[in-house]
Structures are given as C-alpha cells and as structure tokens.
C-alpha cells in the first residue's frame, strides 16, 4: 500500500476576519472520496490519472498490475475534497478481486478507447460488474461517468452522435459522458468536476442538480460530452 502525504492550504484572508471565523477557515470541512477508474486493458486509465493529478503525459505504455493509487486534493469553497483514485488493471474484471477493490468507493470513471470498438462493447460489462458489487448506503448505485478516451486520434463513429451517447448513458445508469484525451488534456478536468458534483449531491441526498457554470454540456474544447443535471432520472 502506498503512503501519501497531504499538502495543507492556508489563506491570507483569515487574518482579516474575526477569530471564530478564522478558526473555521483553518479547520475546513474535509471529504475523502474513493474514485474507481476502470475499463479494458490499454484504454488509457493510467494516463488519464497522471494527467489529472500530475499534469503530465508519457507515451510509454506500461500495463498496471492489480491496482495503483493516486491522490488529488481540491479546495471547494470552505471545504477540502481529497480524491483517492484507484487505477484498476483492465484484466481484473475477470478475477474475484474487484469486489475488494470496489469497496467503499463513492464514484467511478469507466473508460474506453474510441479507436477500439471492442473496448466500448465491454463498457456495459464493466458497469454491470460495478453495480452488482457496489452500492451506496442508501441502496443506490455510485455515480459513474463514461470517458471516451483518445479522442485526439480522430473522430470516432461511436461518439459522433451525441444524442445516441446520451441515450446509452441514461439506459446504462451513467451520470454523464465526455470525449477525453490524456495526451492533449481534453475534458479531463471537466469530467472530474462532473463526477465530484454528482458525488457531493448524492452524499447530500440531492435529487436534482442545478445548472453550473463550471460544468457545461458545451465545452470550450469543442469535443463532445455532457454532465447531468442534464440527465434526469
């Protein structure tokens, strides 16, 4: 098991507020969310995590063995959110360890490679496996975002029709989907914002989310994707 060191946050504004408020600023509410990153072998799960956490990309492919970990710390208003990203090897769906890996997760990314249709065909199997082995304390499935990765390698017929992709996501219980590229840093941040938003809403037992300026169905990259509040269940 890897050990992590956490970086603290401070604010100069604390000196200008009353002592009680300053104390609250020094002790913000914290959340730790376990996030699964799953999908077939070679779809780019590790590259997505490295881009999101470390802002780098390596073209050298190395298959993940078992499971790897990374930590991302976010500051949201007066709250600190720590995302523990679990990078699960593509072949693990065929073993019995996924139940252990999935335990206590609050959200998930399922990734496929737009250049390999077989990895999209496997998406429903990954989602079924996830839903069968993991539920929240309220009995609902965890929030899951679908990532159509490697979109920098050309437009794919699978994601060419956004309405069909949205229909697929609604039928299979995804809260949203994004075309992504770890290499070109396309929609990685937006997808993570979408997932965190839904996790927080789920934790607060929110039924619907209001439209947000941070996550929008129309992205500046001009690549496809959407996040619900767009999807209504």
Describe the 3D structure.
This protein is α/β, with parallel strands linked by helices. The protein has a single domain (30-206), classed as P-loop containing nucleotide triphosphate hydrolases (Rossmann fold, 3-Layer(aba) Sandwich). It is built from 7 helices and 7 strands. The chain has a 7-stranded mixed β-sheet with strand order 2-3-1-4-5-6-7, sandwiched between helices. A hairpin with a 2-residue loop joins strand 2 (67-76) and strand 3. Residues 214-233 are annotated as: Disordered. Pfam families: Ras.
Give the tags.
Rossmann fold, seven-stranded mixed beta sheet, disordered C terminus, Ras-related protein Rab, alpha/beta, 28% helix, nucleotide-binding, P-loop_NTPase, 7 helices, single chain, disordered N terminus, 233 residues
Number of strands: 7
Question: How many discrete domains?
Answer: 1
Query: What radius of gyration results from the CA coordinates?
Result: 18 Å
| Helix proportion range | 25-40%
Taken as a percent bin, the fraction of beta residues is 15-25%
CATH topology heading: Rossmann fold
Concise description?
The chain is an alpha/beta fold. The chain has helices spanning 19-26, 45-54, 98-102, 117-121, 123-133, 162-172, 188-203; strands at 29-39, 67-76, 79-88, 107-113, 143-149, 176-180, 225-227. Helix content is 28%, strand content 23%.
Lay out the secondary structure.
Elements: H1 19-26, E1 29-39, H2 45-54, E2 67-76, E3 79-88, H3 98-102, E4 107-113, H4 117-121, H5 123-133, E5 143-149, H6 162-172, E6 176-180, H7 188-203, E7 225-227
Parallel strand pairs: 1-3, 1-4, 4-5, 5-6
Antiparallel strand pairs: 2-3, 6-7
Membrane topology: Lipid-anchor
Keywords: GTP-binding, Lipoprotein, Membrane, Nucleotide-binding, Prenylation
Subcellular location: Endomembrane system; Membrane
């Amino acid at each position: 098991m890897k050990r992590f060191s956490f970086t603290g946050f401070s604010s100069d504004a604390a000196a200008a507020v009353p002592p009680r408020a300053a104390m609250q600023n020094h002790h913000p509410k914290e959340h730790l969310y376990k996030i699964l990153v799953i999908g077939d072998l070679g779809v780019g799960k590790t590259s997505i995590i490295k881009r999101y956490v470390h802002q780098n990309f390596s073209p050298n492919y190395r298959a993940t063995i078992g499971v790897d970990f990374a930590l991302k710390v976010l500051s949201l208003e007066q709250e600190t959110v720590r995302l523990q990203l679990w990078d699960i090897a593509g072949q693990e769906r065929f073993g019995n360890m996924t139940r252990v890996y999935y335990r206590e997760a609050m959200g998930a990314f399922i990734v496929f490679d737009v250049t390999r249709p077989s990895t999209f065909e496997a998406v429903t199997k990954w989602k079924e496996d996830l839903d069968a082995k993991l539920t929240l304390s309220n009995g609902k499935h965890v929030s899951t975002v679908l990532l159509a990765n490697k979109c920098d390698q050309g437009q794919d017929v699978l994601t060419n029709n956004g309405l069909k992709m949205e229909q697929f996501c609604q039928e299979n219980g995804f809260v949203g989907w994004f075309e992504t590229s770890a290499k070109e840093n396309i929609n990685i941040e937006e997808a993570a914002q979408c997932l965190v938003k839904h996790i927080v809403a789920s934790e607060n037992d929110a039924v619907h989310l209001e439209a947000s300026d941070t996550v929008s169905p129309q992205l500046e990259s001009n690549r496809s994707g959407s996040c619900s509040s767009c999807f209504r269940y």
